Amino acid sequence: MTHSTFQRDDADLSVFDSGTGLPVVFQHGLGGDNAQVVENFPDGPAYRRLTVECRAQGQSQSGTTRPFSISMFASDILAVCDARGIDRFVMGGISMGAAIALHIAHRHPDRVAGLVLARPAWLFDAAPENMRPYALVAVHLRRHPPEQAKAAFAASPLALDLAMHAPDNLASLLKFFDRPEPAVTADLLGGIALDGPGVTEAEARALDVPTLVIGHGVDSVHPLGYAQRLAETIPGARLAEITPKATDKPRHIHEFRSELDSFLRTLDPSRETNP
Question: What is the pTM of this model?
Fold first, then answer.
């Protein structure tokens, strides 16, 4: 795995590229980074995994362009692929990464050889209700210093509900208050929470690409119903329901990697007879 920096407009983007194998562009979720992908992806010589840490996330700079958006991140990723001569690839990601993947699959179908939508947080509309916690974190970060903002959010009815029904989601949200540059974090969360993949249901039904959708329960931000509906909407898509991360994280990671590896094998003719 090699790490490099790609200059794009006014930002330096952190890029991880394993260099050889079936090209797979796989993206992290909102506030995530390459480490999140490493945890869930079956890295190995069979796959050339490319992950671009999106602006204001991981080691990538935020730049000055606002607002942050799914289309902005997708454009950055395609620019990296173009610079590296990667014309056609499997496109996938987790949560926000899944929204980026869907966006690219619709707008650049000639470039996408396969699609992976893992733990999707969006269907077809912008600003879905399940993304409201991120918008609320942004509101508190804009109103108060980080420690006060964190306490105010943790005491909110929304956070208390998450503590009861989706503690893993709450733990992830609270980490945003500890990040440097709270104003940038607020812009990031506020912008993406109000955005969406920019793909209608009719456009999703028109997709013609092998697709894997991964979902699970005990997750308010990534409802299993979203994964089920996307799998029903995209022609020929397969749904893999795995163990919730909140109940058994090691098993969740094992099943995630196994489902993804099995899907990618079907897209790589060289491995059909040599598993």
Answer: 0.97
